[in-house]
């Protein structure tokens, strides 16, 4: 069903009503998504790469009234909207809501097709950032972005270097169905929620030394990783549901899915989260087993990992997985493996 006030995309009154309900950016949890992960723009991307910019523009204008199909971030954005609808029921005046910003390095000529698509799918996206070929990073900072999702690994790395939580999103072969009414977010631990300190020990000295190091430091919290702030933002909203007695019916659920083993190195991970005052709903310590099958059971809207091996394993089994190019693991990726051609169709 459609969420929130807009029932008819052509109804101007409901648009105005929606505009009034928009959270102010400083109180909102701002999620910036590129057009290329929100919608499926593969055909357009192909035209750009093989026929050039002018043919690409011509095609977009000719197909202006045809909406794009959903992309890998679509169900995640719908789940954010479902959480917003629940928050508004409980807290009419609150501005602590998710605010989705569409970011694209397209020129404005593709804007009409994007707006038509948003209306067609009844998405609540008022904020657009069309940079006409320029980097969006400055705008992301101005929006106080809590999370940036893109298909372009170069822009993602640029965002991470500026201290913005960011990840490269991949499209699974066949996307698993996910919940419409509960947002599920799964995180890897090291180099995602936590720093890569322990991973460095493992890479340099092997598993036994890693276990020794974790045992010796189990009461010393790990430093924070690039997505700690996003987990924190989710936790803040969860507490608003708990305050109304809805812990068991909370529309946000978080998961730690880590290759660590519970007995030998799980303690430090959990103690670190506790020291930050953060709760995670489910912690799964897989002791090196593949993550894909477990994620297939959880069915998260989004999963973050710093290692392409796990991202690919998750995507193969239908999970929308995102690569966080942060920390020591990135140095073993062959140079150029992650770099795709720049794209006009929304990063």
From TrEMBL:
**What are the annotated GO cellular component locations?**
cytosol
Q: Which InterPro entries match?
A: 5-nucleotidase
A Gene Ontology molecular function term of the record? nucleotide binding
| Biological process according to GO | adenosine metabolic process; nucleotide metabolic process
Pfam families, per database record: 5-nucleotidase
Q: Which domain of life is it from?
A: Eukaryota
Protein's name in the database:
5'-nucleotidase, cytosolic IAb
Q: What organism is the protein native to?
A: Sphaeramia orbicularis (orbiculate cardinalfish)
